[in-house]
Amino acid sequence: MDLVLACGAALLVCGCVTYLLLGWADQVGLVDRPAGRKNHVHPTPVVGGIGVFVALCVSWIWLQGGEVSSAVLGFCIAGGLLVLVGSIDDVRDLSWRLRFPAQIVAALILCAFGTQLTQLAPLDARPSLELGLLSIPFTVFAVVGLINAVNMVDGIDGLAGSIVAATLLLMAGLAALGGNWGLFSLLLVAATSVLAFLGFNLRLPGRSTALTFLGNSGSALLGLLIAWSAIELTHGDHAPWTPALAPWLVALPILDCLTLIGRRLAGGRSPFSADRMHFHHLLLDRGWSVNQVVLVGLAVHLALAGFGLLLLALGVSDLGLIVGFLLVLAVYSVSLVRGFDVDSGVATVESGSGG
Asked: For residue 4, what are the CA distances in angstroms to 50, 62, 115, 153, 173?
């Protein structure tokens, strides 16, 4: 019953906070206005991330009866930092040189509160892949990487939120299968918060545009959330799932991020430069609707996660899981590059994305 009430609280709080912020956003500049690469038509509030964050904090504290665990407290502090910096970025358009240090600090906060990568395979694996002194820098690299991966995939209405919600539900199921009912409850509540946001962000029947976007605050928060969830799922004294499975569970954002960074560096540009070279831009520029792209992206994401789970069920080693993911990355990168190069006019810098 506590879990049902917590999920209800997450749904209600996110819905109410987001709805109230919609009318307040324009007064403080939390509005994304069409310009440059952005392809949305109307000025749109970027308050979705704030709604999700408030809902998460309230519902998780309720769920834990006020006795908040160290891991949850660390996430709330780190998430609060990213939402604050991201909201300033949404208003002032901060340089990545200011956003990046905030992301590093957020990752270090997770480490300080016990959410930390300590191995790349279970400690009883042979060979054991313990990180030792590399634990903290590797955690920072992984967390910051996922924060930016979700930010990059947040290019059209409903895509990032749908992928994150599906990932959280999948991780919740895995937590339950592994007997980690505390984490199952937290992830189910988190998924409910994101689903509440999607009620404002998806293009639903009778509504051709989103009512609100995640904003940089929201995409950073959701990236932090799935990084935190993956670490909590695969680490701990009795974690039933190998850390080598984690990349498969968040596959599409990682694949898209690494491919785009590689392509930008190969072209002599900053990895943080803006363009229309994501997989969703490729599909949009070829006539696919926004909802079609969201459904296909979600299907590919879940298929990759399912394939990783299948490999694990077939007894593939941890090293095999990692090598397999790298092979998928190579195939994805080649496919995406060829897809853009078929029509050299498709992927032009400053062409436009929004939402």
From this structure: 23, 11, 26, 31, 16
Residue 176 makes CB contacts below 8 A (sequence gap 6+) with 184
Residue 354 token pair: 């929004």
Least confident piece of the model among 98-102, 258-262, 290-294: 258-262
Contact predicate 149/223, CB 8 Å? yes
Q: Cβ(9)–Cβ(62) under 8 Å?
A: yes
Q: Domain-by-domain residue ranges, the chain? A: 2-25+44-341
Predicted local confidence at residue 345, as pLDDT = 40
- DSSP bridge partners of 119: 130
User: pLDDT-derived band of residue 238, with 50, 70 and 90 as boundaries?
Assistant: low
pLDDT tens readout for residues 274-307 = 666 778 878 888 888 999 999 999 999 999 999 9
Cβ(304)–Cβ(248) below 8 Å = yes
